[in-house]
Structures are given as C-alpha cells and as structure tokens.
Amino acid sequence: MSAVLIERGLAFVSSIVVGVTATFQLRNELPVRGLDAVVTKVLLALMILGCVLALLASVNVLGAAK
Amino acid sequence: MEASTSTHADHGAHDHIHPPPEGFIRKYVFSLDHKVIGFQYFFVGLLLMVIAGSFAELIRIQLMDPKGTFMSFSTYNVMFTMHGTAMVWLVTIPLVTGAIGNFVMPLQIGARDVAFPWLNMISFWLVPLSAITLFSTFLVGAPDAGWTEYPPVSLQQGVGGALWCLAIILVGVSSTLTGMNFTVTVAKMRAPGMTWTRIPLFTWATFSTALINMIATVALSAALLALFLEHAFNVPFFDSTRGGAAVLYQHMFWFYSHPAVYIFILPAFGVISEVLPTFARKPIFGYKMIAFSGLAIAILGFAVWAHHMFPSGLAPWLQIPFMILTYAIGIPTGIKLFSWLATLWGGRIHFTTPMLYCLAFLITFTFGGVTGIFLASVPADLHEHGSYFVVAHFHYVVAGGALLGFLAGVVYWYPKATGRMMSERLGKLSFWLFFVGFNLTFLPMHWLGLEGMPRRYASYEYFAKAFPDSVFWNQFETISSFLMVAAVAIFAFNILWSLRNGVPAGNNPWGARTLEWMIDSPPPYYNFKKIPTVLARPYDFADPLPYLNLDHDVDPYPAPTEAALQPARARA
Amino acid sequence: MATTTLTGHAAVEARYNDVDPVYAETRDMRLLGFVLVLFSDCILFSSFIFAYLYLRTSAPVWPPFVDGHQLPRLDTAFAAVNSVVLFGSGVTMHFALENWKNLKKGAFNMWMILTIILGIAFLGGQAHEYLSAQMTWQGSAFGASFFTLTGMHGFHVFVGVVYLTVLLVQANRGVYTGSKYFGLTAGTLYWHFVDVIWVLLFYLFYLW
Question: Which residue among C9, C91, C199 sits closest to A18, beta carbon to beta carbon?
Fold first, then answer.
C-alpha cells in the first residue's frame, strides 16, 4: 500500500463524509434569514464544491496523475 | 422579525448618550469622537500638505534653469516621488475622507458618531505613523522612481523602497477601515425617516467614496505587498528573468490608483452639491441623477485602469475597450456638471467664499476633465503620456478640483465646527491668490506638454534647445506658484485667526437646510440630544424644514444671517 | 408579525427570552462591518490570484523551467487529504455554533476543540508541503505565487486558530450569554471564509 494510495483512499472517503454532512447542514440553514445566514449558506455551498473537487482529485479525474 | 435595515423604527442603541470623555488625552489625543478625529485629520493633513508642497516648490525652483543645477538629479527624483506620494496618500485622501467626511457625514444623517469609533481612531493614527515611516526613508535613501514606483527601477532603491511600500500599506489600512466604517454608518445609522432618497448629497458622495475606499485600497496593499516581498525577499513577481512581469505591477497598481482619483473627487462633488443650493437659494437640480451618478462613477471607475498603461505594450484589443470606457466615465460627471449649472440658473447667487471656490471648481475641474478626454484617446495618449500635458491634466482635476472642493467645504463648515465665521476678506484674498496662481502655474504646462516637454526630468536642457520659449514659461510657472504658497499661508492664518477673532456664527449662518445646521455650533459631543425624524429631502427651499423632534426651535425657512453676509470684523 | 416563523438571530432571542433591540441593532452593524472586512480580504486574495493567473497564462510552459529542469507539478493526493481536513473543520465549527445556540455547552466545547485540532492539523500538512516542495520562493513565478498565496492563506488559518482558541476560552468564562454571542458568529464566518479561499487555491494550484 503506497503512501499515495492511502492518501487517495483517505481523501475519497473523508470528502464524501464531510461533503454529505455539509449538505445536510446547508439544507437546515436554508430557511434561516439574516445576513450571517446568507453568508454561511454561500460559504457552505462553496465548501461542498471543495469536497467535490477533493473527491475528483482522489480518483484522478482532476489534477496530475501520480 | 428581523430588525429593519433602512430606518430605525424603534430607537435602539442610538438613543443612548454616553458620558462625556474626561481628561486631555481622552478628549483630544486618543479621542473616539468623529468631530475631534476630523480636526486631527485636518491639522495633520494640512501640515503634510505644507511639507509636500515645499517639495513641489523645490521642483519648480529646479525647473527655473533648464540645466537643472539647483539640486542633484537624484535629489530631484526623490522630490517628485515624495511630493506625489505624500500628496496622494497623506494629504488628499485623509483630508477629503478623514477630515470633512468624518466631521460632516454623521451630523448630516442624524447620528451621534460613526459605526465603529475605535476603528475611526485607529484609522487616524495610522496616518502620522505612515508619514513617519515614509519620511524616515530620507535617512536611508528615499525612493526616487515616482509616486508610482514601477519595478524594476524601484527595486534598485534598497531599504527606502521597501519602507515606502510599508508606509503606503499602513495608510492603505487606514483608508480601508474608514471605508468600511463609513459604509456601515450610512447604511445603518441614519435618522428615522431618512430613506436613501432623502440623504444629503455630501453623504451620498461620502458613501460612494467609502465603497471605493473599501474595495480598491486592498488591491493597492496587495500590489505593494508583492513589491515589498520582491524588495525584501527577492520574490520574483515582477522579474521577467524568473517568470515574473514588470507590467503586472502596473496592472495591480493602477487597478487601485485609478479608483483612487475618484476617492479624491467624489467628496468634492458632494461639497459642491451642498454649497450651490445654499448660496443660490434654490433646490439642487437632479438630486437622484447626482446621487446615482456618484455610484456609477464609483463602479465604472474600476473598469478603466489600463488607460494609464497605453504605452506599456498592451495589445490593441485591450486598449480599445479601456479607451471607450474612459470616454464613458465622463458621462456621469457631465450629468453632475449640468445639474449644478441648472441649479445655479435662475438662482439668487450669494458670492460668499465657499461659493467662489465652487464656481472656480466648475471652471477648473471641467477644464481638467476635458483634457482627460484628450488623454483617453489612445493615439493622443501615446503622444502625451509622460509629458507635462499629463501633469497639467491631473493638477487641474486634483488641485483645481478636489482641493478647491475641499477648501469650499472647509470654509462652509468651519462655522459649524468652531462657532465662528472665517474672515471673508482674508478668505476672498486667499481664494483669488490661489485661483490666479493655480491657473498661471498649470495652464502653460498643457502647451509645453504638447510640444513634448517630458515630466520627471531633472533637466530639460535638450528640450529647451528645440523650444527656447519653454525656459520663460517654466520660470513663469515657478513665479506663479508662489502665489499659491501665499494663498495657502493666508488660508492657514485665516483658520487660526478666526478661531479667536471670527464673528460668532450661530447655528445656521448660511441658511442651509441639512441636519448639521439644526444643532449648536460647535456641536455638543453627543451631536443630537434627541434623534430627529426626517420627512423629506433637505433641498426644497420653498417648503418648511422637513424635520420633527429637533433639539432647538428653528426657523422653518432658514435664511443667511448678518454674520454670514458681512465681511467678518475683528473683535474690538 | 406573530404569524411569521422567527429565524436567525430573532429566533435565538425568542428561544432565550432575551429580546434586546439595543443589542440587536449593534449586532446588525457589527455583522455588516465584519462581512465587509471579509469582502475586502477577498479582494486581497483576488489581487494575488490575478497575479498568479497573469503570470501562468503568459508563461510559455507551466510548470516553468528552473536551472534547465522543468519543475514538477504539485502532489495532488496529499493536498486533497489536507483540504478535506480543513473542510471538515468547517463542518465541525458549524456543529459547534449550532450546539451553542441550543444551549449544549459540552457539545459546543467538544466540537470547538475538534475544529481547532483540525485547523492545526491543516497547518501541519502545509508545513509538510512546504518542506517537500521542489521549487523555492525566489526561483520562479511558480514558487513566488504558490508560497505567497498559500502563505497568506496559512497565516489567515493561523490567526483563525488563535481566534477560535480565544473564543473557546471566552465562551467558557461566560462572556457570551443568552442571545449575545456575536463573537462566535464572527468566528464561524471567518473560519468558513478561510475554508472557501482554500477551495479556490486548491483548484488553482493542484488541479488546474
């Protein structure tokens, strides 16, 4: 098990866990009003995008092959 | 229900009057009061203006002789660098935003202070700190690549260049915090009933300026941080031998520095919009157009930066949109100009000193704006870039525009700030000295520039061989510039003399209608004992004052007082 | 007014029976001010990102050559793990704030500590990246932009870790009561902001 494979596997699993949790958090935030809630929703959404990017990186769809 | 964001239906934090500050330090040194901070900015800004102005006089003395024997060439380069740097960042921006913006805006919206008084104080103290950092470079080798400090030349300066970056980053933080502070103040702290379309135009201008301040200044800090990293740690952002690009600095620098000129001018526009109706006794023409054109200028100002870079090797497909947008940005300014002219038309004009400054502004700023349109054209700019034509243009808009507007504001609000009228006689004298001196100094520069006299040259010996008349004109300009020195000296004297000897002003000597004139002169530390309610725009002279719940009973149709209309007499 | 469901700060006030219009107005202003400061921080990063985009797109080849050898691309796998560590800390921070709002102090403490640990772990990961990097800060535009941008970001994370620690201590000393906990809200927004900047940097340096 090379270090790279462990890293990729870890990234794959954890990005799914974190991304799904964040999606539920975002869903709960949706009805909340107020400037801080709007900012939180936008940033959570972008963070979920980040998890998607990490997921795609872990399966070599994005980023350099290594 | 979420708290209302436009007006305060229920008086919350802003009804609470805090106890007065105690002790000299709390009252005058580390003050949290926007009025005191405004004074602090004013006096520090004036001092720095005298220093930066002396550098300019040294430049002018050098240019009396085309061989440039008065100073060494490297000293000359330091002089124009430090003159420009100090004037842009330590004089103009602190004075128009920190001095009059701070003092007047909270009063105009019926607030007791700005949103974040602590940050306001920090913003002020960063200015002297920045000035000390900047002038300390004289000890280690001052920067000499112009106020724009382009690499790679600026990278040859050693510690001085790095300190320059730090000094400007410091004053940039000051600006950014002020921008954020004013934005929140105008957005959240207006008196009940003061909707966005009832805000006085100076406050509108300050708000638009604050938006630019808040967004653009950080881009400057980034550019200067990158330059600093290259100075201090040899990080190759701008070194083309290691993959960097010198023109990248220009993009990063001008992305801020173009909106910066709108920071200079928008508050001055705001002053004009206040002074003209008051002394023409007529409502401002086109309130909404003036307010929204200010916002349009603020936004569009971010889209034109590369017109400072036309000769830098930009691709033609890039030059053309910038040229078109630069032409376009003259339109909102034109809208303001015509609205002001329409305000004057048919009015009953009182030629008080603030009004004289405003009328002069209309002439010199428009002139400067027109030469800006010349420079907006790419082919014309390729000829005029780096010549005295550009120097003439920006001095007309900054000194003939922002500075005149600022001075108008100082004379206009001085009675409110101090309770005294400035001497009209000295005021008119310093105005005419400045107006004549300014035009005689900067008008010939247009012609010299078109003939090809380059700027930032310590010696114009070779140019003078081709155009011998230029020697006479440069000497003419230098002599004329001393008229401006006299004007500033008399103005400063007037400020100080009138503090003791000016005619007592009363609350509303000019018969103006915005909220700051409804309270005492000078205002108490808490500004308003009761926060008034606003029912309409302030400029409708035919109607009674649109306010409820004022601290004092005021004449619903205020008129200029005797104190205002007579020249001030010294106390016996 | 009684028919609309309260949300946001108003809901918290109702939950605590702690309606204070004076505080609510101040909080409103402080929130706007804080968001505007975050926005200007955005501009700071955007300026450097512009510089990176400019240098990268005008370079003839990327990664560039230094001393005759082309620099290798950055290691995506490790960075992906480190990124998820940071994103995870954003999720834990959100849980912390939610628990605070629901008066669950114990859970709040746990999630805050977890957030701080994950933040420190991210910094550790960045240290590893820096030590194993093949390029230098001074050697090329690649090193210049990478180390400057990720360095600025790392500095923001470091400040955030300190800030969150201070907030944790303050919360446990009883500084935040009832519906008055703006510091925690600000800390959460700051932390999410730092997170999202990393999303952009991760894409720009590792995936593009």
Answer: C91
